[in-house]
Amino acid sequence: MKLKFEPISSLPRLSWCACIREHEEVARILHGPWVETRDDCFFEGAWDGPFEAYRFDEAVILAGSGGRVVGGAILFASPGPMCERLYSLSVENELYVSNSFTFLLTQADQDLDIHYPNYFFDFLYHHQCGIRITKKPIRIRSGRYVYLHDFCNILVKPDLTITRIEKNLSDPPMNYSDYVAFLERTIKLICENAGNPARKQIYRPLTTISQGYDSTAVSVFAGRAGCREAVTFRKSISDDGYVDDCGTTIAGYLGLQTTEYERLDFNKLSGMPTAEFYLNPFGMTEALAVMEDQFVGSLLITGTWGDSVWSTDNLSGWSLLQTPLVDYLQPATTMIEFRLRAGFVHPTPATISALHRPSIRRITQSREMTPWSVGGDYDRPIARRIIEEAGVPRELFGRQKMKGAPWSPHGFSLSSPAGDRDFEAFYLAKVDRNTSGHPVVNSRQNVRKRKINWQRPLRKLLRPFPVSIRRALMWERLDPRWGAKNLYRFHWGFERTKERYQSALNPNR
């Protein structure tokens, strides 16, 4: 099988979609301008290996995605653990594979079902399951299914059959020193790969930093790998309100030059910046849009998944990448379209060795980590030790848990006025007229708060159970977002992002 590359300059920089016809010799690869192409492979991102070998599919950690010809088939490689994924869809005698859910459906001329409000919960469920469940369908309007492929390679044969191939794994860490040395070595290799001069696009390291555990810990590794640039929000949301969370002072101890941003400046952005974050229509990572200019061309190193891997919570040791601690957020997955369009690579150090969470948990609970455990609900002994041994004073970080999501009981929110108006028009035109009788509740904060109050004890009781059991027990219906009008922001955001792809693919339309 051969690859035929079709670069389209107006596509998002790092997006791609493969179109494979049954038993045909050539597969079409439509892609954005920063996707790297070679005779027998293509890719976007960086990995923990030498760039010139192009063996991204064999990497332990791939921050990005790609595909290569293997004999008479094509092997597609998905990103690292549960932060992003590949999507596939079969239509008649053609198979589509993409790193973008929107690009996939646009190229296949398919659409969401406006009569079905719960796409968000379907994606959330698949995220919660990790790779304990590997068959992950999303039903679309035509009755066909898009399949999600998390943390794996998939082999597509000429007859369009798909075989899942598990990623290469590192050995489980034996102790703190073993674990930290592996993290540091892997991040250095990814940074070297991203900065290789043979690339079409070179990526410079950039880290996020705050007063929390996770971003500060990964900033230590970033600095040791040559990073000198950091971004931080001046304030974040906590149970005490909108409070100081600026990481500039900490960054000084790590040799990082910091640019400060105001989280609520998101409300001043023009256009509809919330649309491309539609995978979580209730908000999570939209505030990062204010940093877009600095993100372009970067290797963005963040603390995503730190709370799921480094926490002392009883559920942090779950294997197979389930996400019990952050199961309502889908961290990083919501920024896929933003990343592909802006053009940056997103390695997440906490996901390195994340399949070995039982071993990492044993290290967290070991006697040697006791001096770095402060107790309480917000405790990360591994992260604290990394930071303190890098010379950062204990009193500067890890004092209270902040919330990256824009909504809070104190009323802070991120909003795009133009986007809000457009969503209301979309809802009236597409939802009210087509889904009459569907029970949708008002999604104002006071309604949500009342639902949270009576549901919290029952959700806490069910939380230790596996995701499949929780879902069978109507777990989602206990979610305060169930039945909310904002569930249709998923459809709205998809539609607006799809228009961007349509314009790129059919400029004269």
Q: Would you mind describing this structure in some detail?
A:
With 509 residues, the chain is of the alpha+beta class. It folds into two domains: 2-166, Glutamine Phosphoribosylpyrophosphate, subunit 1, domain 1 (4-Layer Sandwich); 176-396, Rossmann fold (3-Layer(aba) Sandwich), CATH 3.40.50. It contains 14 helices and 19 strands.
Describe the SSE topology.
Layout: E1 2-7, E2 16-21, E3 26-31, E4 36-38, E5 41-47, E6 62-70, E7 73-77, E8 86-91, E9 94-98, H1 101-107, H2 119-129, E10 137-139, E11 145-149, E12 152-156, E13 162-166, H3 176-194, E14 204-208, H4 213-224, E15 229-233, E16 235-238, E17 241-244, H5 248-253, E18 257-261, H6 292-295, E19 298-301, H7 306-309, H8 336-342, H9 357-364, H10 381-389, H11 417-432, H12 445-462, H13 467-472, H14 489-505
Parallel strand pairs: 1-3, 14-15, 14-19, 15-18
Antiparallel strand pairs: 2-3, 2-9, 4-5, 5-6, 6-7, 7-12, 8-9, 8-11, 10-11, 12-13, 16-17
